[in-house]
Amino acid sequence: MARLVMKFGGTSVATVERIKNAARHVKREFDAGHEVAVVVSAMSGKTNELVGWCKEAAALHDQAEYDVVVASGEQVTSGLMAIVLQELGLPARSWQGWQIPIYGSDAHGSSRIEAVEPAGIVAGFDRNREIAVCSGFQGVHALTNRIVTLGRGGSDTSAVALAAGLKADRCDIYTDVDGVYTTDPRVVPKARRMDKVSFEEMLEMASLGSKVLQVRSVEIAMVQRVPTYVRSSFDDPDNPKTGTLICDEDDIVEQQIVTGIAFSRDEAQITLRRVADQPGVAAAIFGPLADANINVDMIIQVVSDDQATTDITFTVPTADFERARTLLESRHDQIAYQSLQGATDVVKISAIGVGMRSHAGVAARAFRALAEKGINIRAITTSEIKFSVLIDAAYTELAVRTLHSLYGLDAA
Ligand code: ADP
Ligand code: ASP
Ligand code: MG
Questions:
Q1: 3-8 and 35-40: which strand pairing?
Q2: I want to staple 343 with a disulfide (CB 3.0 to 4.6 A). Which of 88, 102, 269, 394 is the partner?
């Protein structure tokens, strides 16, 4: 007998019919004798609708009340799933975040899980192997007793954190693809499913735009050593496949140099032209951005022909672009730049692979291949196991496909 967490994402519970199908996967595991906790997302499209209603109610709304509204999507699904499981003759009970409880920080809209105390769920396991159907995405802040949500895609994190809290043998993330691919299979039909991917690589892929798992869920899986599988809810419940295991690097026998390509449209570029080239200028620009909680990602600095000034280009999340621009414009006098240019029609393409640690020139090959396709690179960053380039958004698919083939990732 094992203890399992099974998470079903939005498309997997999009209709009552789909919930019934997901429930058959749960029944299979229950019938095999396992203790099962289920984590559900809101029905596909529901969270967007709820977010839209908050914006319609007030452009600048209270974030604590936003959480009350958007957490409701998962509540509906948990109740429906419990009803459907009961209909199959299984003992099942729904659990909201506050009932488990899952404690989160008071950063409303992007709360971080601080503790999971699932004694009530364990009591249900002990009593009659009761299936706990938990709402993903939500928790409660211990001090204020208010509902919090974990950021978009947060049900993955609920599932992995619950698996850690329950000391589960496995966390299965059921979604609309049958595993983690070398890149988004919706963009590159030749993408290949991986049997295994290391925690480190999955963490980079998720951070760099592969939204198949929320970044925080991978962090928790890595730190708490939760064996996590990504697999398809559309498999035949009586004959399922295994999907992709996220595991230690050492457990992967055949390592590629590059294992995956990720891309993110969530990036905007700002260039400050002819900034005085003197000590303290970077601090004058990036200090206020940091104080305003704006994350700066890529940075490049180029000395101009006059040798006295420099051009500084950097990227910020698209959502913070206007705020960053307004802030820098308000500091025009202190920073002393000639002009500010911004672009939001850009995309960041990244290649990830632990093999980069021991191989030189991996990125250089990409620069050459992109140049041959006439794709201009606006900015570059590299680190130990990944590199990223910023390019015009119009070239997204071409660039992803080019790098995917370049590193030998295309399916035969
Ligand atoms: P869920 O609603 O189940 O949480 P998501 O839409 O959040 O599902 O995540 C699954 C989607 O992630 C897939 O449909 C796929 O388009 C996308 N995706 C992006 N990158 C990858 C990748 N490398 N491998 C698999 N899926 C990916
Ligand atoms: N329903 C939430 C969202 O759409 C959480 C999730 O699906 O993981 O972001
Ligand atoms: Mg998701």
A1: parallel
A2: 269
Structural domain count, the chain: 2
With a 6 Å cutoff on the Cβ, whether 139 touches ligand 2 is: no
Read off the pTM. 0.94
Ligand 3 center from residue 19 Cα (angstroms): 16
pLDDT at 252: 86
Element (H, E) at 66: helix 63-70
Task: Give the nearest ligand 2 atom to 42 CA.
Answer: 1
Domain enclosing residue 104, as ranges: 3-252
- With a 6 Å cutoff on the Cβ, whether 21 touches ligand 1 is no
Both tokens of 217, joined, read 């869920």
Average pLDDT over residues 231-239: 95
User: Which domain-ending residue is among 237, 252, 267?
Assistant: 252
What is the reported pLDDT for 41? 98
Q: Domain holding 194: CATH number?
A: 3.40.1160.10
Q: Last residue of a domain, which of 209, 233, 252?
A: 252
Q: Give the tens place of pLDDT for each residue, 113-125.
A: 999 999 999 999 9
Residue 154 in contact with ligand 2 by CB distance below 6 A: yes
If asked whether residues 288 and 304 sit together in one domain, one would say yes
pLDDT surpasses 80 at 254: no
Same domain (yes/no): 241, 387: no
Closest CA to 271 of 320, 319, 195, 324: 324
Q: How far does residue 212's CA lie from ligand 1's centre (Å)?
A: 3
Counting atoms of ligand 1 from 1, which one is nearest the CA of 260?
23
Residue nearest to atom 5 of ligand 2 (CA): 153
